[in-house]
Amino acid sequence: MVAIRFLLLLALFVRGIAGTHRLLIASQHDWEEKRGFYLGFENSSKGDTPSHWGTLSLVLGIADGKEWRFISINPPWQLEKDYSLIVNINGEEARMRLDGELKRESKGGFLPSGGTMQVYFSPLWGRGRVDYLLVLKNLRITSGGKERAFSFPLLLPLFLFEPQCPHRFDWETKGEIKIEATFTILPYPHIKTFSPFVDLYGQCKYGDWEGKIKTDDDLKKALEEEERLLEKWGEGEGYDQFGGYELSDWKEEGTGFYRVVKRKGYWWLITPKGNPCFYIGLCGVPISPWEIMTPVKGREFLFEWLPPREGAYAQAWGRGFWGESDVEYVCFHISNMIRKYGENWREKEEEITRKRIKAWGFSGGGKWGMPEGIPYFPVLSRWDVPNIARHPDIFNPEVKAIFREALRRQIEPRKNDPFLVGWSLGNEYDEIITSEEIKEILGKGADVPAKRALVDYALGEIYKGNWEALVRAWQVEGKSREEIYQASPNPPSEDVEKLRFFYAENYYEFVYKTIKEIDPNHLFLGFWIIPGWWEKEKSYWEVFKLSARYCDVIGYNLAGYEFMSERFRELVGEVDKPIICGDFSFPSFYEGKRGFGVWSDIWARDDVEAGEFYERWVSEGAINPYCVGVLWFFYRDQPITGRGPCKGIDLVVRGPTAPYLVCGEHYAFGMVDVTDTPKWELVKRVRRANLSAIKRRLNIGE
User: Fold this and answer.
1) Minimal CA–CA distance to 130: which of 10, 14, 298, 18?
2) How do 177-187 and 132-143 pair as beta strands?
3) CB–CB of 110/37 below 8 Å?
4) How many other C-beta atoms are found inside a 10 Å radius of the C-beta of residue 184?
C-alpha cells in the first residue's frame, strides 16, 4: 500500500516540480497576508531537461501588507566566480547590489513578517534537476541593531546528497533589514568523480560523527551497550500488554478489544483489558524492506561493498519494489543485522525490537508492520477491486461484491486478534475522491452505473428535476434521461464539487458498513486524511467532516511543528470524535554531514532537536481532549542513496547526469540508524515523553 501511495503522490508532485528549481538565500514572509520578504534563486526548464545555469534569476519579493512586488536580475553569470550580494529593504524602497553595482531598486513600502527566518533553503516543490550547484559561502543578516552571520564550509561529495544547508531561527525585523551574501555557481560534477559514496555499513563515506560504525567490533560493542541500557530501563511500570495504564484510579469494562469512550470531556482509547490508554506507536516494526532498500542497477559504483547475492546475505537483496522487475535492490539494514546478530538475525531482531518498544515507552507498533504479540494498525488495500477512475464504481453491485470479498479476505483471519487496534483503508491520497475523477466518470458511456448515479443525483438534487436548467448548465443536448446518460457533459465546477461529495459519501458509507459487518469487534480509523491537503481548502474541511461520519476514530497524518492548528482544532471540536495521528516525524538533517535529505520544511538539526520537538508534540497530543494516540514515522532510517524508484519519478533528485546519486526519498526518519543502532539522543527524549504522556492526560482529564 505504501509503495503505491508513494508512487501516486510523487508522480503528481513531479509533474509540478520536475523543471522547477528554487533556492532561498533568506526568507521571512507570509504569502497570504502579503507580509515580509524572500530572496533567492529561481530557474525552470521543460520536461526532463535540467535547468541551465545561464537562465538562472536572482529574485527579491517584498510585501507591504497590500500587495507583493518583485525585482529580479539575470546577468551573464560566470561559473566558479565568487559573487557578492547586498540587499537593503526598508519602508520606502528595496535595493539589490551585485559586486558593488546597483542592479535593481523598487520604491514602495515594506511590512515585516514576524516569526521564523529561514536561510539557505530549497522548498520541496522547488528541487528540480539542474546542471549547476549554487554554493552559498557566507551570509549576514542585520536589522534593528541585531545580526546573524553564517559561513558554509563546502565538502562537495556531501553537498551532492542535498545541495542546501538550511537554518531557521526566531527573528524580529525592525526598520531596515540588510542581507549580505557571497556565493558561487559550480558546474554539476559527474558523481563517479567521488565514488564510492557509501561504506560497507551503508553509511556515508565522507561523513564522520560520534558513534559512526567503522568496524564489526563497533557493531558488537554498540549491541552490548544497548543491552545493558535496556536491562537498566526495563519496561514502563504499570502498563498492560496493550499499552493501557493499570495504575489509573478508574477503569472500564474489558471487552477483549480496543474501543473508545468519552469521560469528563475527554476521549479515551480503552485497551482490551479495560485500562485507559494514550497510545503511542512506532510505524514500520519489525523490518519493512520496501522502505529501507535502495536500487543498485546501474549504480554499483556508488558502493564500497555490496553483500554477496548467495548464502546468508541473499536475504539482503530484493527486486521490483516499485514495479520494475529488472531492478535489484539492496538492504544494508539487513546485511548489518546479519553481521550483528548472526544466522538467526530475524528472530533476534524481532526480540530486540519488542524490548526496545517497551523500554522506550511505546504502547506498541503503528502502521506498516504486524509484529507478533504487540499492538498494531493494519492498513487494508483494494488491489483486486477494479476501478472506474481512481476508485471502484460504488454504484455497481458486481463491483461492490468484489470489493466486499477483497475486504473479507484481509479482515477475517484477524478479526479476533486483541492486539489489532483498528482497521484503516488506504493512506492519505489513496481514498480522496477528486474533481478530476468525477469529470472522468461523466465522460464514460451510458452503461456505467457510476455515471448514471451522478446524472440522477444532479437532475434530482442539484436541479430539482429541471431538465432545461441541467442541459443548459452542462452544455449538452438531450430530451430524456437516457440521452443525458449518453452525453459527454461539461458541468460547472460547483456541480462537480457537489457530485464529488455525493460520490464520496456513498463510497465512505459502503466501506465503513462493510468492514463493520465483517468485523464488529474492531475500530475503523478511516484512511489517514491529511488536514488541509489536496482539494480546495474550504471543500477539504467538508470532506473531513464527511469522512468523520463513517469511522469510529478519525485517523489522520500531519507534518508540522505544531500538534494542531487553530482551524484544525475548531474542526475536530465540531465533529466531536476521537482522533489519532498516524504519521508524524521530525527527521534530522545533521547539517548535511551524513548524506540525508531535508524533508519538506519539517526537519530537525540533529537528534537532540528532533527529540525536543517530539517531547513538545507528544505532550500537546496527550492533553488534547480528542486525541487518543499518535504514531511516529518511522522505526528505521531510509538509505542515503534513496529508497527508489530510479525511473521517471526520481526526477525530484537534482543532477543532470544519470545514474542518480539519490533515487527517491532519503530521510533520517528513524529511531535507529542503518546499522540498527538506536539514536540515543533522540531515544532518551522520546522515552521521557512517552512515559509521562498518560500521566499528563490523566491529571488534566480528571
Assistant:
1) 18
2) antiparallel
3) yes
4) 16
Q: What are phi and psi of 33, to 5 degrees?
A: -85, -5
What pLDDT is recorded for position 541? 79
Which residue ranges of the chain lie beneath pLDDT 50? 1-17, 648-654, 657-658
Query: What pLDDT score does 648 carry?
Result: 43
Helical spans, DSSP H, in 561-635 = 566-575, 607-622
Structure confidence at residue 537 (pLDDT): 52
Residues 6+ apart with CB under 8 A from 325: 319
**How many Cα neighbours within 13 Å face the side chain of 228?**
6
Q: Are 557 and 2 in contact (CB under 8 A)?
A: no
Q: How many Cα atoms are found within 13 Å in the side-chain-facing hemisphere of 348? A: 14
Q: In which element (H, E) is residue 86 found?
A: strand 83-89
Q: Where are the alpha helices (DSSP H) in 258-331?
A: 289-292
With a threshold of 0.70, does the pTM exceed it?
A: yes
Pair 254, 600: CB distance under 8 Å: no
| Nearest to 183, CA basis, from 108, 270, 80, 273 | 80
Residue 310 CB-density burial (10 A; 0-12 exposed, 13-18 middle, 19+ buried) = exposed
Cell numbers describing residue 393: 464504481
Cell of 113: 513578517
Q: How far apart are CA 551 and CA 422, in angstroms?
A: 10
Q: Is 608 left (phi over 0), alpha (psi -120 to 50) or beta?
A: alpha
Please report how the helices 537-548 and 566-575 are oriented relative to each other, as an axis angle in degrees rounded to 10.
Answer: 30
CB–CB of 581/377 below 8 Å? no
With beta carbons less than 8 A apart as the criterion, state whether 370 and 348 touch. Answer: no
- State the Cα–Cα distance between residues 23 and 20, nearest whole angstrom: 10
Q: Compute CA 436 distance to the chain's CA centroid, rounded to the nearest angstrom.
A: 23
CB 617 within 8 A of CB 563: yes
Cα 270 to Cα 258: distance, rounded to the nearest angstrom: 6
Q: How far apart are CA 38 and CA 207, in angstroms?
A: 32
> Residues 21, 126: contact at Cβ < 8 Å?
yes
Instruction: For residue 686, give the amino acid letter.
Output: V
DSSP structural state of residue 520:
S
**551 Cβ partners below 8 Å, 6+ apart?**
512, 524, 525, 526, 577
Please report the pLDDT score of residue 702 as a whole number: 55
Domains of the chain (ranges; CATH) run: 2-189 (2.60.120), 217-377+543-701 (3.20.20.80), 380-524 (no CATH)
| Cβ(441)–Cβ(457) below 8 Å | no
